[in-house]
Design goal:
Helix content is 22%, strand content 30%. The protein is α/β, with parallel strands linked by helices and 332 residues long. It folds into 2 domains: 218 residues, TIM Barrel (Alpha-Beta Barrel), CATH 3.20.20; 100 residues, Golgi alpha-mannosidase II (Immunoglobulin-like), CATH 2.60.40.1180. A 6-stranded parallel β-sheet has the order 1-4-5-6-7-8. Strands 13-14-19-16-17 form a 5-stranded antiparallel β-sheet, with helices on one face. Strands 9-10-11 form a 3-stranded mixed β-sheet. Helix 4 packs parallel to helix 5 and helix 5 packs parallel to helix 6. The radius of gyration is 22 Å and the shape is globular. The two termini are 30 Å apart.
């Protein structure tokens, strides 16, 4: 996980905003003080205050987000407001990556924050969203996103939409630097829920992960650092994949998502890879996309691990209906 410090940038709800220029300057100074409080040494004014508050060690902050969802500000002032914050923060903290919360025309931001709350079919259709993104433009932080199906937590159908979307994020990880599912937690007690769907449900005594939670665990547990050449052949319209290689562990991670009701026969080709004849398969599957987890049945839909045999540079694999799989392939 990577911490992101967000600072107020002059836009509030109900179309209230601070005009760029002198009126915005106190908020820019407040942001600079906030950054110093988080990252400054103990001999700085605000680093000393942090020390008094019980945390002498500076926090590691690489990213600062300027505002939040400023695309809702109809004044069209965000571009100038972002530029004012950018100039002041970069002058004092040139190594910080500054995130814009909406597309802007005044300059090219370091990173742009995109938000998506959609149905599974939308993510199925849009899994290639970043395939053709301009590599000269800003990097992308998908700062809020979720498939909204199921309540109070996502069902298996939502997990399939999430996983399909994540294959696109992973496949384009040269431009998509971070992603953050939202929201994380929901109190399932009567009358307590504020938003559906949420990754983890809880009450006063217990908690449980949704199918989407386990999809996140599967993707996050097997991260590569390079993308090897690969080819996956399948006729299914709701079939998605990504391939990465962990060079330190000498492993290849093949992530497969079948969002359809039919099994998918897949021919996997990894030319040039010298693979062990057996690997590991982690599979999350359900008989119906409506299946989910509850506080009383917390692992009705949960990953299962098994051996994967018959591995080679070109091999056949069957992906069950409504399933998310990670194939862990060891290299010689």
């Amino acid at each position: 996980m990577e911490p992101v410090l967000a600072v107020y940038a002059g836009y509030s709800l109900a179309q209230e905003h601070i005009a760029p220029g002198p009126n915005l300057e106190p908020y820019v100074q407040a942001a600079l003080e906030e950054i110093e409080y988080a990252t400054g040494s103990t001999d700085t004014k605000w680093g000393a205050e942090r020390t008094k508050d019980g945390h002498p060690a500076p926090f590691h902050i690489a990213y600062v987000e300027i505002g939040n969802e400023d695309q809702f500000d109809r004044s069209d002032s965000y571009g100038e407001r972002y530029a004012q914050f950018y100039k002041a923060i970069k002058a004092k903290y040139p190594d910080l990556q500054l995130i814009a919360t909406a597309p802007i025309k005044t300059m090219t931001p370091d990173v742009q924050d995109d938000h998506y709350y959609v149905r599974a079919t939308d993510f199925f259709h849009d899994a290639t969203h970043y395939d053709k993104t301009d590599r000269n433009g800003p990097k992308i932080f998908v700062g809020e996103w979720a498939t909204r199906e199921g309540t109070p937590v996502p069902n298996m159908g939502a997990a399939l939409g999430d996983a399909a979307w994540m294959t696109g994020l992973e496949r384009n990880s040269d431009i998509v630097v971070m992603a953050s599912y939202a929201p994380l937690l929901v109190n399932i007690s009567p009358g307590a829920m504020q938003w559906d769907t949420d990754l983890i449900g809880y009450d006063a005594l217990r908690s449980y992960g949704s199918p989407s939670y386990y999809a996140q665990v599967m993707f996050g547990s097997y991260l590569g650092d390079v993308k090897p050449e690969s080819s996956v052949e399948s006729g299914g319209p709701r079939f998605f994949y990504s391939v990465t290689e962990n060079t330190a562990k000498k492993q290849i991670y093949l992530k497969l998502v079948n969002g359809s009701s039919d099994a998918q026969a897949v021919d996997i080709k990894l030319p040039g890879a010298k693979l062990a004849p057996s690997g590991k398969l982690i599979s999350l599957t359900a008989h119906d996309p409506e299946e989910t987890n509850t506080i009383d049945q917390p692992k009705a839909v949960a990953p299962a691990e098994s051996a994967l045999n018959g591995v080679s540079g070109s091999f056949h694999h069957r992906v069950p209906p409504y399933s998310i799989e990670v194939l862990v392939l060891d290299q010689h």
